[in-house]
């Protein structure tokens, strides 16, 4: 370290001024068996070379496995595991590990291992350098006149600042404005409730006490005159993320709240399947208690009592779908949900 | 078991030759005939003794079940209105076969969760109990292997069944039982049990009867074919090889994180210790040549 | 060193380095130097000294797993299609054939089943990502516990914290890409997180998703963030992190000959180049073994994302687990007012808490140096016990993290330990507050008692295990002095000095009353150092040794000339041999 710094209190590395035990200094170098014993040295050399040799063997086996083991729809297996993946992984791993182990063994046993001492320098520059740099900086600033011409400086700052606006506004077309999209779903008065995946409508008489049906609105499976689906691709996904419901039949006597009773049919209730916490689909129902649990964060809702939250982090009740029965005995919606489904958001009217 | 199996992972239509379907059909016909010859008379005999069976079942019931479920299977309530054992009227033979056959009943102690354990009754006794409970009121009967097996289908029908079963499984079952059937937690200490490795008959009966806190998937909810397809999908999951290696319990990211820390980082830190460790030292001095 | 521009400039000007009689390697070096003039910068750096300790290699695990991520990631991009366009799967995986899915998911299946080695690369990429974040975290802990973040390395601490933050985000964007059921559930939750922000939340969600969730844009957008934006930032920050490491030179443990002014170890070339290079192969190899043998994220079993499906055990990757745990144990406090809803139950645990934790993390070095007023450079590491309050602070933060983490896996804990998720949740709600406090107290007292033990050893020697019986019949254990090297190492630490309140004086020399900030600082400083045990002074040591020598003299005639340690390598006693009976 340089002398000029030794008086600068802030930058002197700390020392132990009153060391109770004197520094004995670096211990004398001791030799490794490989340094003093030619046989040991040869042995270590062979070990390292053997590692590299094993690596080569693994690399070749990797190539062989690549071409030998089938993937696709008829995977070869080895001990019940996918042969291709296991063999490629093990041989690639071996090829790499043996190089690594060999190189490190080389460094540990054969490379010179005299410890070296290097002196540190303070992180800061020398005082001259610092002063020279500061002088250059102020000279440059002075010549630019940025301090003397506030009009130029301030108008520049303003111009650069306003440039930020185009940058932000450019992002406007990332997506449409929310509008009232989150407040409505595709459920309409009279729309049939159909089973998910297969799309068949549900008769009241189909369901026994204790049945739980994962259901969707009929429109998701509807086709137009040409036989093309009414909803396609992203529309289906968006619709599912809001319209999915669970239909559960319980003893009518189990129902607690007036609203739940009014919106049910013979003990059959329908609730939104989208958790009001952060939107996971929720269908872990306990048949005996009619408590519905969310697998993501364990919010629990009471299906007998307007979907009230009885446990967990959800902030408000699970929306119930008002339900009725049509002339043919199929379950239909009385209307859309009466409140937004899914996670809460700032514009959501708490009612 | 052969260690290397060149075709275990395959389920595809390319697998079978054109004659395979024919051979399977022939074999199937042959098997059906043989089986019928072997069992038909016995069934006829059993048919005659249904009442006998139920009577024997009632005896077993009074000893082993009536304490909780009542002398006539009407269920027992405690003074404060809690149910000790629910009514068994109308639960059907399927429920008995599931509950007693998987050892869930009789329970070690009353509670919401009935864990699977070694069955207490023999197959014969279970059949007698089932006959008795079935006589209490109409309910689902014990499914037969045609109900839950896709053996009779053509190769392409099987594939379709497995695919459809997978979609139904992911819609109706994974929420509680997890994507590999490893099971999951339910409120207040309850759990949905692991269903990997459970006999198809019991899976079918569980869907049909909704044991303990599980929802019903009655035939009006999931059709018998759909239930069969779910079982076919579970079977295909079990048959499929571990494409990516060992499955780590099929529990998802939690067990993966555990392995990343313990196996991955653990071994790498071990290597780091080795790399930085001091090598053996000799007491000899080096003699410069 | 490499930033020393003045020297590079002189070299480039007139006196270019010309090697005398170059070897082959020398010739190549000369060719390069004629054009690049690197010799001046390389002169010292080729033999730059790195101290050797296993804990100094933890950061290297992170570096090398990042390289594995780059390599395997490039491979994956060759087949992965970042598109949410709808296709019907017609690939090799039978149980999903005919199912409608996004191109992203279909291409993930294709990578897993039809590209040889594709599944291996997918799994290696995922394992390496988990190792990347995990190794950054243990590297951070090592740096904190040993005080390596102190001046002049505070900025590198900040860079490291940013790397941890970016690595976490990179992981999240990555595991969301395959568009399987689990990753889609994660994005679904992220949508809920965004919507919890007051005023702007709904708009942010609509802009990010290009409309209503899930839209068609999120996968391509996350892809760009995952393969371009964040890796670019990571690379730049890693470069800065390494440059600063080289410039500051590595810290080292105190020991004989190792001081604040030097660094003792092996040279970059050849030993460190070999050790670091070899370690790269080892990290790569371990990742390959894991990718080959351990299934991670079996997307084919989850099925394509469908907003109406979910699986039990829906967890994020482990590094997102702790905010997820916070989310799980948060009570359902949602506020409704003036026609608005404020989901505080989501906003606090997932938006505020992680931000707060990262801010605290980044500020730790500055808070400590503000309290201690220590402005000196530090290159010697401290043992965790010698900074009891600092150690206790981090253990307390770790306890908080660990409990949140466990809360994030409460459903798995419930099924594995046959417990109730409700009870676990209630327990965690209290434990995340009480646990860290208990951990702080225990750790601090533990460190202090270890300090006491060190002083005992210094003053009275180590316990030999030899029990002596005095003529009076009393028993005592014999102590022997420790070696000077060990004694030096144990005392090579500073005495804790709390700087006095700096009373500022005004122009008339009247001391100004201490400001509130100064008072707080002084109070915190007192708390921080209270009860710390200082190393003994020279006088104390001498007196203790004098006493011990006296004892030994007294004992010398009483017992056997050998002290029982002649055979265990502590020292040799020539006349003694193992008796053979």
UniProtKB/TrEMBL annotation, chain A:
Domain of life, per lineage: Bacteria
Coiled-coil parts of chain: none
Listed Basic and acidic residues bias regions: 1-12
Limits of the Rieske domain: 263-332
Pfam families per UniProt: QcrA_N (PF19297), Rieske (PF00355)
Localization of this protein: Cell membrane
Keywords: 2Fe-2S, Cell membrane, Disulfide bond, Electron transport, Iron, Iron-sulfur, Membrane, Metal-binding, Oxidoreductase, Respiratory chain, Transmembrane, Transmembrane helix, Transport
InterPro entries: QcrA_N (IPR045603), Rieske_2Fe-2S (IPR017941), Rieske_2Fe-2S_sf (IPR036922), Rieske_Fe-S_prot (IPR014349), Rieske_Fe-S_prot_C (IPR005805)
Membrane topology reported for the UniProt record: Multi-pass membrane protein
Entry keyword annotation includes Chloroplast: no
Main function: Iron-sulfur subunit of the cytochrome bc1 complex, an essential component of the respiratory electron transport chain required for ATP synthesis. The bc1 complex catalyzes the oxidation of menaquinol and the reduction of cytochrome c in the respiratory chain. The bc1 complex operates through a Q-cycle mechanism that couples electron transfer to generation of the proton gradient that drives ATP synthesis.
Protein family according to the UniProt entry: Belongs to the Rieske iron-sulfur protein family.
Name of the protein described by the UniProt record: Cytochrome bc1 complex Rieske iron-sulfur subunit
Species annotation: Nocardioides koreensis
UniProtKB/TrEMBL annotation, chain B:
Enzyme Commission numbers on file: 7.1.1.8
Membrane-crossing segments per the record: 258-277
Membrane topology value: Multi-pass membrane protein
Catalysed conversion reaction: a quinol + 2 Fe(III)-[cytochrome c](out) = a quinone + 2 Fe(II)-[cytochrome c](out) + 2 H(+)(out)
Keywords: Cell membrane, Electron transport, Heme, Iron, Membrane, Metal-binding, Repeat, Respiratory chain, Translocase, Transmembrane, Transmembrane helix, Transport
One Pfam family linked to the record: Cytochrome_CBB3
Location in or out of the cell: Cell membrane
Top-level taxon in the UniProt lineage: Bacteria
Domain Cytochrome c: from-to ranges: 52-137, 160-238
Chief place of localization: membrane
Keyword Ubl conjugation: no
Heme among keywords: yes
Stored SUPFAM superfamilies: Cytochrome c
Subunit record text: The cytochrome bc1 complex is composed of a cytochrome b (QcrB), the Rieske iron-sulfur protein (QcrA) and a diheme cytochrome c (QcrC) subunit.
Protein name: Cytochrome bc1 complex cytochrome c subunit
Organism for this UniProt entry: Nocardioides koreensis
Lineage of the species this protein comes from: Bacteria, Bacillati, Actinomycetota, Actinomycetes, Propionibacteriales
TrEMBL record, chain C:
Cofactors named for this entry: heme
Coiled-coil ranges (or none): none
Pfam families linked: Cytochrom_B_N_2
Keyword terms: Membrane, Transmembrane, Transmembrane helix
Transmembrane spans: 54-80, 127-145, 157-177, 223-247, 278-300, 346-367, 387-406, 426-443
Basic and acidic residues composition-biased segments: 560-581
InterPro entries given in the database record: Cyt_b/b6_N (IPR005797), Cytb/b6-like_sf (IPR027387), Di-haem_cyt_TM (IPR016174)
EC number: 7.1.1.8
Matches recorded under SUPFAM superfamilies: Transmembrane di-heme cytochromes
Residue segments, region Disordered: 558-581
Reactions catalysed according to its record: a quinol + 2 Fe(III)-[cytochrome c](out) = a quinone + 2 Fe(II)-[cytochrome c](out) + 2 H(+)(out)
Segments forming domain Cytochrome b/b6 N-terminal region profile: 28-254
Domain of life assignment: Bacteria
Protein name: Cytochrome bc1 complex cytochrome b subunit
Lineage, broadest ranks: Bacteria, Bacillati, Actinomycetota, Actinomycetes, Propionibacteriales
């Amino acid at each position: 370290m340089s002398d000029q710094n030794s008086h600068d209190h802030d930058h002197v590395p700390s020392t132990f001024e009153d060391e109770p035990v004197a520094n004995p200094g670096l211990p004398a170098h001791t030799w490794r068996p490989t340094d003093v014993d030619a046989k040991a040295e040869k042995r270590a050399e062979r070990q390292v070379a053997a590692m590299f040799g094993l690596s080569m063997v693994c690399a070749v086996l990797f190539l062989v496995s690549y071409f030998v083991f089938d993937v696709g729809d008829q995977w070869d297996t080895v001990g019940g595991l996918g042969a291709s993946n296991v063999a490629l992984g093990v041989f690639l791993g071996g090829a790499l590990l043996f190089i690594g182990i060999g190189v490190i063994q080389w460094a540990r046993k054969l490379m010179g291992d005299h410890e070296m001492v290097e002196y540190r320098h303070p992180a800061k520059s020398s005082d001259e350098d610092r002063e020279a740099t500061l002088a250059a900086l102020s000279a440059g600033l002075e010549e630019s006149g940025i301090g003397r011409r506030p009009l130029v400086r301030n108008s520049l700052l303003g111009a650069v600042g306003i440039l930020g606006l185009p940058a932000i506004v450019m992002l406007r077309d990332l997506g449409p404005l929310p509008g009232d999209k989150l407040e409505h779903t595709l459920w309409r008065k009279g729309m049939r409730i159909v089973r998910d995946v297969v799309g068949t409508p549900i008769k009241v008489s189909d369901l026994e006490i204790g049945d739980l049906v994962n259901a969707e609105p009929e429109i998701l499976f509807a086709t137009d005159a040409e036989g093309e689906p009414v909803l396609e691709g992203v529309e289906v996904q968006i619709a599912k993320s809001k319209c999915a419901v669970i239909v559960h039949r319980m003893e009518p006597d189990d129902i607690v709240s007036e609203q739940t009773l009014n919106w049910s049919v013979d003990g059959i209730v329908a609730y939104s399947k989208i958790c009001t916490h952060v939107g996971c689909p929720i269908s872990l129902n306990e048949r005996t208690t009619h408590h519905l649990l969310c697998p993501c964060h364990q919010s629990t809702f009471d299906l007998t009592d307007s979907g009230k939250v009885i446990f967990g982090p959800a902030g408000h009740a699970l929306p119930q779908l008002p339900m009725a029965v049509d002339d043919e005995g199929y379950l239909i919606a009385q209307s859309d949900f009466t409140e937004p489904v899914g996670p809460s958001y700032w514009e959501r009217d708490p009612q | 078991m052969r260690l290397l199996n060149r075709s275990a992972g395959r389920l595809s239509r390319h697998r079978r030759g054109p004659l395979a379907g024919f051979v399977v059909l022939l074999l199937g016909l042959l098997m059906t005939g043989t089986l019928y010859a072997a069992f038909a008379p016995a069934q006829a005999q059993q048919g005659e003794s249904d009442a006998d069976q139920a009577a024997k079942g009632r005896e077993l019931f009074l000893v082993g079940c009536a304490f909780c479920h009542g002398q006539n299977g009407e269920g027992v309530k405690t003074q404060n209105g809690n149910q000790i054992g629910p009514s068994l009227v109308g639960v059907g033979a399927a429920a008995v076969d599931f509950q007693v056959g998987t050892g869930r009943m009789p329970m070690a102690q009353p509670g919401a969760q009935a864990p699977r354990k070694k069955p207490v009754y023999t197959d014969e006794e279970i059949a007698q109990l089932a006959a008795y409970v079935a006589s209490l009121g109409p309910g689902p009967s014990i499914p037969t292997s045609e109900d839950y097996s896709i053996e009779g289908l053509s190769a392409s029908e099987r594939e379709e069944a497995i695919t459809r079963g997978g979609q139904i499984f992911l819609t109706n079952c994974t929420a509680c039982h997890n994507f590999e059937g490893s099971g999951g937690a339910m409120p207040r200490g309850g759990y949905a049990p692991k269903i990997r490795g459970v006999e198809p008959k019991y899976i079918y009966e569980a869907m049909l009867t909704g044991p303990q806190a599980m929802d019903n998937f009655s035939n009006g909810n999931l059709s018998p074919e759909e239930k069969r397809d779910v079982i076919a999908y579970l079977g295909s999951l079990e048959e499929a090889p571990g494409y990516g290696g060992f499955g780590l319990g099929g529990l998802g990211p939690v067990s993966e994180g555990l392995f990343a820390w313990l196996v991955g980082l653990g071994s790498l830190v071990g290597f780091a210790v080795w790399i930085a460790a001091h090598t053996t030292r000799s007491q000899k001095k080096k003699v410069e040549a | 060193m490499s930033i020393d521009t003045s020297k590079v400039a002189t070299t480039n000007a007139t006196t270019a380095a010309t090697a005398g009689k170059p070897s082959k390697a020398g010739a190549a070096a000369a060719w390069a130097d004629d054009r690049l003039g690197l010799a001046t910068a390389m002169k010292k750096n080729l033999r730059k000294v790195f101290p050797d300790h296993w804990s100094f290699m933890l950061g290297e695990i992170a570096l090398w797993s990042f390289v594995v991520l780059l390599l395997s990631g490039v491979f994956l991009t060759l087949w992965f299609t970042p598109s949410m366009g709808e296709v019907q799967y017609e690939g090799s995986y039978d149980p999903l054939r005919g199912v409608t899915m996004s191109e992203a998911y279909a291409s993930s299946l294709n990578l897993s089943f039809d590209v040889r080695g594709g599944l291996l690369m997918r799994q290696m990429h995922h394992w390496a990502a988990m190792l990347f974040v995990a190794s950054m975290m243990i590297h951070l802990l090592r740096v904190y516990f040993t005080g390596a973040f102190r001046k002049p390395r505070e900025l590198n601490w900040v860079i490291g914290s940013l790397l941890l933050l970016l690595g976490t985000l990179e992981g999240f964007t990555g595991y969301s890409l395959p568009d399987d059921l689990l990753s889609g559930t994660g994005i679904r939750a992220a949508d809920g997180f965004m919507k919890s922000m007051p005023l702007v939340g709904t708009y942010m969600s609509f802009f990010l998703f290009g409309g209503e969730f899930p839209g068609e844009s999120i996968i391509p957008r996350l892809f760009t963030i995952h393969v371009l934006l964040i890796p670019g930032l990571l690379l730049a920050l890693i470069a800065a992190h390494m440059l600063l490491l080289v410039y500051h030179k590595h810290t080292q443990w105190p020991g004989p000959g190792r001081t604040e002014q030097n660094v003792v170890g092996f040279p970059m070339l050849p030993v460190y180049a070999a050790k670091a290079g070899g370690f790269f192969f080892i990290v790569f190899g371990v990742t390959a073994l894991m990718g080959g043998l351990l299934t991670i994220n079996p997307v084919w079993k989850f099925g394509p994302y469908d907003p109406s499906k979910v699986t039990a055990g829906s967890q994020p990757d482990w590094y997102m687990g702790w905010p997820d745990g916070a989310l799980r144990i948060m009570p359902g406090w949602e506020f409704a007012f003036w026609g608005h809803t404020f989901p505080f139950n989501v906003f606090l645990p997932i938006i505020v808490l992680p931000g707060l934790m990262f801010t605290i993390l980044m500020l730790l070095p500055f808070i400590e140096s503000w309290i201690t007023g220590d402005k000196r450079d530090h290159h010697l590491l401290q043992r965790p016990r010698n900074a009891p309050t600092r150690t206790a602070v981090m253990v307390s933060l770790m306890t908080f993290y660990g409990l949140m983490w466990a809360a994030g896996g409460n459903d798995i804990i419930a099924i594995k330990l046959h417990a109730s998720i409700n009870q676990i949740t209630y327990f965690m709600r209290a434990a995340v507050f009480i646990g860290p406090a208990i951990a702080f107290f225990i750790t601090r007292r533990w460190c202090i008692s270890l300090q006491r033990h060190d002083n005992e050893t210094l003053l009275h020697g180590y316990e030999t295990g030899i029990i002596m019986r005095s003529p009076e019949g009393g028993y005592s254990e014999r102590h022997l002095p420790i070696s000077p090297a060990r004694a030096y190492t144990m005392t090579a630490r500073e005495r804790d000095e709390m700087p006095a309140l700096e009373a500022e004086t005004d122009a008339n020399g009247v001391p100004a009353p201490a400001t509130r900030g100064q008072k707080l600082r002084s109070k915190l400083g007192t708390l921080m150092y209270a009860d710390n045990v200082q190393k003994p002074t020279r006088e104390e040591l001498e007196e203790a040794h004098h006493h011990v020598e006296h004892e030994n003299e007294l004992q010398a005639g009483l017992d056997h000339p050998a002290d029982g340690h002649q055979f265990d390598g502590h020292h040799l006693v020539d006349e003694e041999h193992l008796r053979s009976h």
